[in-house]
Amino acid sequence: MKKIVVLTGAGMSVESGLKTFRDADGLWENYPVSQVATHAGWEANPKLVTEFYNMLRKKCLNAKPNLGHQLVAQLEDGYEVTVVTQNVDNLHEMAGSTNVIHLHGELMKVCSSIDPYDPRYIQTLTADNPEVKVGAKAGDGSLLRPHIVFFQEAVPMIEVAARACSKADIFIIIGTSLVVYPAAGLIHYVPSNAPVYLIDPGDVNVYDAGHIEHIKKGASEGMSILYKRLMG
After folding, report:
1. Are the CB atoms for 158 and 76 separated by under 8 Å?
2. 171 in helix, strand or coil?
3. Is 138:46 a contact under the CB 8 Å cutoff?
4. Is the CB of residue 104 less than 8 Å from the CB of residue 116?
5. Which entry of 102, 104, 188, 214 is annotated as an active-site residue?
6. 72, 59, 4: which is closest to 220 by C-alpha?
7. CA–CA separation, 148 vs 15, rounded Å?
8. 23 near 17, Cβ under 8 Å?
9. Is the pTM of this model over 0.85?
10. Whole-angstrom distance, CA of residue 185 vs CA of residue 224
11. 182 phi-psi bin (left φ>0, alpha ψ -120 to 50, beta other)
12. Is 104 a catalytic site residue?
């Protein structure tokens, strides 16, 4: 079975009403990114950060996967599909995708603020209990922090994503400007003979990445076009 790798960014979830901190205006839901998505912001005001992510989880739980998410999931009917997403929402999973690599963390998880990647202290929040109480602690005694890769922190899943990209027979990029590294560099791991499709309504700078077919549509409309071609 052929392997498809799908790299998704903010444009994938925008049709579902969600923004991400990678937006160019430096704001995330009207909060300065420096306050809510950096380690310095967390250390300066963990109460603000905790309350911000509580609010964000409520928005996420009210969001629904759009047609683009659903069609990516339905590609599994004919291909082995790996989704690599820069988004912190769980809309791909909600749509039915079974193999999702989250580069920038997961909104519905919290972790130790001493060692965010110690699996013993990573907790998954539920839809009926999505809030973290201010001052709540992880099993190691540190404050529970969002399981989010803050700006200027390492991206621990990038090597896993790169290995997946290196095995792709088809590579699809949806809704990402390809300017945020290290995610933007993943395209260079894709085999040179693999077709690459870019779905984005705007101009994207991909001049150094070989041949790419650019479908200048939003996530849902673009995936509708590509899905028909790939699934025949």
Report:
1. no
2. strand
3. no
4. no
5. 104
6. 72
7. 22
8. no
9. yes
10. 26
11. alpha
12. yes
Residue 39 contacts residue 153 (beta carbons within 8 Å)? yes
Q: Is 105 left (phi over 0), alpha (psi -120 to 50) or beta?
A: left
Question: Which of 90, 80, 93 has its CA nearest to residue 168?
Answer: 80
The confidence score (pLDDT) of residue 28 equals 76
Each residue of 31-51: pLDDT tens digit?
888 899 999 999 999 999 999
Tell me 130's DSSP state.
-
Number of CB atoms found within 10 A of residue 128's CB: 6
Q: What is the spatial distance between Cα 87 and Cα 63, in angstroms, rounded to a whole number?
A: 13
**Residue 213 token pair:** 């077919």
Which residues touch 166 (CB under 8 Å, ≥6 apart)?
189, 190, 191
Query: What is the C-alpha separation between 83 and 98, in angstroms, rounded?
Result: 9
Taking each continuous run of H as one helix and of E as one strand, the counts in the chain are 8, 11
For 29, left (φ over 0), alpha (ψ -120 to 50), or beta? Answer: left
Rounded to the nearest 10 degrees, the angle between the axes of helix 67-74 and helix 219-231 is: 20
Please tell me the predicted confidence (pLDDT) of residue 219. 95
Query: Which three-class secondary structure state does DSSP give residue 61?
Result: helix
Per residue in 30-46, is it b (16+ CB within 10 Å) or e — as a string? ebebebbbbeebbeeeb
Q: In whole angstroms, give the CA distance from residue 124 to residue 147.
A: 9
